[in-house]
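Encode chain A's predicted structure.
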Amino acid sequence: MVDEVVEARGLLAMGANMGVEPARLKQLETLLSEPLSMSLDTLRRLIKMGKRTEAQISAHMLVASYPNSQAAQACFDDALAIPT
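Encoded structure for chain A:
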């Protein structure tokens, strides 16, 4: 997933250089800046169930894909706080 998001961001940059409509690029950039609510919900369920390893791996991947997302970072912090 991380590679796909990085590739999509690269394609957006290429689109900007090729004259793609700026408003459309902005929409797509917004979509790539935050994880899907479904991904966050799944991670929150893992955290709530206390599945420490699965939650931490998923949270790490989510933060790697969306490094500027406060929601992803909050889930990451919650996953790290799951007791052993």
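Residues 24 and 63 are 25 Å apart (CA to CA).
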